Each structure stands twice: as structure tokens, then as C-alpha cells.
């Protein structure tokens, strides 16, 4: 049977047109049962849990005339979920997802509701510049928890603004500042941002109305504002920003962009870039500009005489304790659909940044390797609050040497997981304690509204295992997934889509009614309790000795699993 929902988990939802605070529901709907249906498998070799089967286990939240549930974050102190949305009250209802009318229940009840509208003057200015009613709204694009404050930015009808709010009372705005260089103008532009412990905001976004001036920009805090060089394609070339991380002395950014070093037509490469957090910019040369910006190509490809490349980075997930970066890549949208997951060690990224540069003297010259004048650079040569150590030569080098010669290679000779005829859009990774070891479980969002559950390779012989797939929407009403957020320690996944946010419990051992089905699923969350005589999570077991788990190979076939389930 379906397990009881976690009670007492409060959630708060921030809407661009409204702020909502949410309190979780505590029990499953009546009649919820564990089933494994052959119809849900669609003749595939992995189990597919249909919408009707998964629906009793999940909770949904939606608000009328509210769209774009794409920004999700947690208030860790209160175990509250904050969700950024937008309200588009004047759109015809046909442009809104009709599935909102089919939502059977909410995951929560609001704790707060606070509007954040564009004013009429700002919207009129947006219309006058040729933008549509849909575009001239306020879309939340930055949600960052900073102590007891929430820093949030919205597009504000192509006039971005940012506010600092009190977490315990989202209606209380402490200050409002310009969102330029902190938030995109257009809701269609990708961006990423983070706040450091010392209060600096690092943002990667478009800095102008047209979106032609992308930048990695630092503001706020005690250090001077800095950005990447303006209108210089060797620094950034039509990038799509994906993610950012604060790691040690550096801030890392991950994105995809047009490859300036590729001479034969237009090709997109995926990048890792970094800057020193104590960078203060140059004097005369590179003034107000990063002096430590470097970038390198990320490789995710199938090996062979002619490798098959997954060029376009879509999402990342970083495990800080292991210093591992999981990344999902796809082929170009005009190519055959295919996706892959590659895993990168931070040490491999660091090694490439310590290596030679790739340099082009002028547009007619070939790209050639150039020795790195500062291998094993750790930001120590830059004085806090001073740039006295920056010589003219070092600034010239910083201006010229941006791209690394070597390519960052993933762990292993081939991708961790590949799938043809599908495009993955986001991923998260849960680290699960099994009976005898830790397992990494990868959750992959598809562009048609399902979640794939993949077990990271157990060893070189087995490779990864596709454990199952869940359908979040009924047939004919699927929609792309816009965001994924994993709640650590509670085994809960939050999924943001166009018209709602969905809470999915990751531990669903009750689906497996027999010992054979439980062990055959190879699910790291689940094992067979000999004393209770049912499939349980490790935490529910009466004794570790009584808890059986067998994960030495991939799951049994779907047909056999159905037979075992009875």
C-alpha cells in the first residue's frame, strides 16, 4: 500500500504575481494501493509506472492563472519549499495548460500569499518596445536563501529588479535594487546565480534588453563589481548558462556556447569556467573585468573510431563531499534525439585549468597550444582589496589566455548512462545507503513529462541500470519538466512544470508485494524484511540482519517482474 505522507513539512511558494506559503498534506488519498501494471510498461524492458498508478503517491500544488513553476529552493531552517512562478491573468485560457483543471488535490495549503506585480508604467514601456502581453510580466528567475533573508529577482517586464525579503514574512521587503546583470530581461533567457557566505552575488545572465551582452558578473558584498569582457566572443559566445557552484577559492560556472575555436561551421560546445573569488580586476587594462577567468570544454561522448558527441549541456548536480559533478547532455535540437549522463571529478577539471591554453593570435591564425604561465594557480597571487601584484604582462596574459587546450574528460571511457530518442532536461542525484554500500541514484527529467530513475554503475561490467520511469501526467496531457529539486534526507523530489509543482516520494517500497518482486526491482531504497514479511525501506526494518537486499545486477525484465509481483 502507499505509505503515509510526511506530516508537518511546511512549504512556502513565491509567485511573481503572488507569494504563497504552503503546508503539506499528511496522508495519501483513500484507495491508494500498490500496483504494477503491464499496460504501464509499453513493452519496454524497464518498468513504467503510469499516471494512474503513481497519482495516489504524489501531491500537487497549483493556483488559477499562475504559470511557470520553474524556480524552486528550500529554506533549510524551516524545511520549507519556496517556489517562484508568474501569473498571466489576461491570457486566453487556451494558452494555459488545461491540466490545471484536472488536479485532484493540492500538496499543501498556503501559509502566505504576496503579490509582486509589474506596475502599469513598466508594462507600458515593455509593450512600446514590441513585447507581448505574456512577455511583459514579472517572472522570478533568482531565488537565493541567505541566512534569514530571501534574495529574489524578477524580469519585471524587461526591467529586472531584485528584492531582499524576510524568510519568515515574505511580504516584508528590506530593499529593492536593479536586477540588471543579476537577472535576465527575458523569461526565455537561461541564467544562473549564487550568493557566497561573504555576501557577494555571482550571476551569469544577459545584461541588456536584446540579450546580446551576456556576462558573468559579480556584485554586492565588499569586493568590487567585475564582469567578463564585453562583446568579446572569445570570452563568451552566445552562451546558455546552466549552473554555478561556490567551491573553495573559485566560483565555477557551467554552460554551453557556440565554439569559437571550431572552424568548420557552427557547433555548440559545453564549458566549465571559473573565476577567483578574490579577483579585484585590473588596472588600466581589464579594469572592472575578471583577470582570472578561464574556461574549458567538457567532453561527453560515445567512444569509437568516430566518437558520437553529446555537445549540449542541459543540467548538472554537484556532490561536494565526493567532489563529483553529474551532468546531462543532449544532441543538438536539429539532430536525432539522444541524451547522456557523464560524471566529472573536480580534480579532472582542475587539472585542465592547470594545463596549457589554446590561443589564436588573430582571426586568420590557427589555434595553438600555449604554456600556462601559472600552473597550479590557487588565487594566492591576488591581494585582497588590492591589485598591486598585477603586472602589465600578467594582465595582457589574462586578456589573451581564456580557453584551455585540453578537454575535461569524464570518469570512465564512456558515458555513465545513454538513451536514444529522448531528451533529458534536468537531473538530480540521491546518495542512498543500502545494506552493504552507498548507491548513487540519478533522476532524469524528460522533455515529455516523465522521470527516469537510473542506478549509477555498480562496476565496469554491469554499467548503469534503468530502474523505472514514472509518468506524472495522463496520456495526451504531458508537458515538459522545468525544474527538479531534491530534498536531502527526506527522499522527496519536487518537480516544477508550467502549471504546478509536484511532490514525489522516492521511497515506494509498497509497490512490491512479494519478496521476489522486491529483490528483483534492485531498488536501493528497498529490501525485504523477513520479520515483517514485506518490502520496506532500511529505516523501517526491525533489524539489519533481517533485511534482505540484492543489488549486484540490473533489474529483472519487466515481464518477469510483473509475474513476480502477482
Automatic annotation (TrEMBL):
<keyword id="KW-1015">Disulfide bond</keyword>
<dbReference type="GO" id="GO:0001755">
    <property type="term" value="P:neural crest cell migration"/>
</dbReference>
<dbReference type="GO" id="GO:0071526">
    <property type="term" value="P:semaphorin-plexin signaling pathway"/>
</dbReference>
<dbReference type="InterPro" id="IPR001627">
    <property type="entry name" value="Semap_dom"/>
</dbReference>
<dbReference type="GO" id="GO:0007411">
    <property type="term" value="P:axon guidance"/>
</dbReference>
<keyword id="KW-0472">Membrane</keyword>
<dbReference type="Pfam" id="PF01437">
    <property type="entry name" value="PSI"/>
</dbReference>
<dbReference type="InterPro" id="IPR027231">
    <property type="entry name" value="Semaphorin"/>
</dbReference>
<dbReference type="InterPro" id="IPR002165">
    <property type="entry name" value="Plexin_repeat"/>
</dbReference>
<dbReference type="Pfam" id="PF01403">
    <property type="entry name" value="Sema"/>
</dbReference>
<dbReference type="InterPro" id="IPR016201">
    <property type="entry name" value="PSI"/>
</dbReference>
<protein>
    <recommendedName>
        <fullName>Sema domain-containing protein</fullName>
    </recommendedName>
</protein>
<keyword id="KW-0325">Glycoprotein</keyword>
<dbReference type="InterPro" id="IPR015943">
    <property type="entry name" value="WD40/YVTN_repeat-like_dom_sf"/>
</dbReference>
<feature type="signal peptide">
    <location>
        <begin position="1"/>
        <end position="25"/>
    </location>
</feature>
<keyword id="KW-0732">Signal</keyword>
<dbReference type="GO" id="GO:0030215">
    <property type="term" value="F:semaphorin receptor binding"/>
</dbReference>
<dbReference type="InterPro" id="IPR036352">
    <property type="entry name" value="Semap_dom_sf"/>
</dbReference>
<dbReference type="GO" id="GO:0045499">
    <property type="term" value="F:chemorepellent activity"/>
</dbReference>
<dbReference type="GO" id="GO:0005886">
    <property type="term" value="C:plasma membrane"/>
</dbReference>
<feature type="domain" description="Sema">
    <location>
        <begin position="46"/>
        <end position="506"/>
    </location>
</feature>
<dbReference type="GO" id="GO:0030335">
    <property type="term" value="P:positive regulation of cell migration"/>
</dbReference>
